[in-house]
Amino acid sequence: MSPLEHALVALIPVTIYILLRHRRLPSKTMLSVVCFGSVFPDLVDKPVSYANLTPWGRVFMHSLPFAIPIVLVVLGYALITNRLHLGTGFSVGYLLHLPGDWHTRLLNGEIPPDLLWPLTSIPAHPGPAHWWGPHNINIIWWSAFSIITLSIVAIRMGMDISTQMKRSSS
Ligand SMILES: [Zn+2]
User: Fold this and answer.
1) Cβ < 5 A residues, ion ligand 1
2) I need a labelling partner for 64 at 20 to 30 A (CA). Which of 8, 93, 99, 112 fits?
């Protein structure tokens, strides 16, 4: 799936849920968090794969042995800072990304070994993603976009953690 498709796959059910449960549209913060979660695996794994640090662009953050601990840490932080709804939004976006990439094989009852990497070995795959190429998204531009986005989020998270620590110590 392309990044836009991943975002839509996450945003549509979250928006419907919030509309039905709270009778209002999701906040801008919730939309941003869900969007970020839905493309987070591609923000990390496509540039990492392009740098030849992993076998291809659907392992590492795309793999359950990494995804589950990350989601648990995010949910734990969201819980202790009373923002469980935002942590859940990120987690829903993130966790929907994985079956989104593998929906054809999963619907056929097959579990791709890539989902369990590095616990399993995986076959060789060409390129970081099917949507990468001269007539599609340029991987260098995507990598630059990824680095900028992840840097902004890391700075924002650092500021947030610092604020929460000051709040809890006072
Ligand atoms: Zn992906």
Assistant:
1) 41-42, 101
2) 8
Q: State the distance from the centre of ligand 1 to the C-alpha of 78, rounded, in angstroms.
A: 24
The Cα 53–Cα 28 span in angstroms is 34
Domain containing 62 equals: 3-169
Proportion of the chain above pLDDT 70, given as a percent: 94
Residue 62 corresponds to which tokens in the numbers above?
Answer: 């795309």
Q: How far is C-alpha 88 from the chain's CA centre?
A: 12
Q: If you measure from the C-alpha of residue 57 to the centroid of ligand 1, how many angstroms do you get, rounded to a whole number?
A: 7
The partner residues of 137 in beta bridges, in order of sequence, read 132
| Rounded CA separation 130/123 (Å) | 16
Q: Is the pLDDT of residue 126 over 90?
A: no
pLDDT tens, position by position, 92-109: 999 999 999 999 999 999
